[in-house]
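Troubleshooting log. The previous structure file for this entry was overwritten by mistake, so regenerating from the original sequence record. Sequence copied from the archived sheet and checked twice against the printout by T.R.
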Amino acid sequence: MHLFLSAFDDVPDPRAENARHDLGELLVIAFVSVLCGATSCAEMSAFGRAKESIFREFLKLKHAIPSHDTFSMVFRMIDPKALDAAFGRVLADVTALLREGDVIAIDGKALRGARDKGESARTRMMVSAYASRLRLTLASVTADRGTELDGGRGPTRFGWWRRDRRAHGGSRPDAWRSRSAGADPAGS
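Regenerated output below.
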């Protein structure tokens, strides 16, 4: 969780100076609760209270778990670009954990019926990159045209990984190997 707390340090706190709850701790509780299925601020607060003893192992929680009103107020006021940048730093830190030769599985899923009126009958696809050793989905992108491999290629997609020559075909995900721990996002 230190990874998240350090990334959230740079997110400006939109609340008054006398705010009771630490913004980084509030965002960690929100993030973990959403990963566990919370879909509202009330559910984030309820999850935090139910798991408070676990959160206290790595968070200070000077004023206990924030209420649903506090979560709601923070998410209405917070700068979304700053929050997105913080998650980008977290992803960069996680990507740095990749080792030479780690397997990155690329898999696509068809989104049947997910198109606008007047759009062609071509099925949309989502492509995900999964780091096997870390047991973590690194990214998910849409494949607008072509196959799932076409959707994952390119510098703005999953272009910083090279395809392993021994990758298996068929319906199983293609195995990709990371180039290095400091993978080049603008690489070939």
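Confidence is low (pLDDT under 50) at residues 154-188. Archived copy saved in two places this time.
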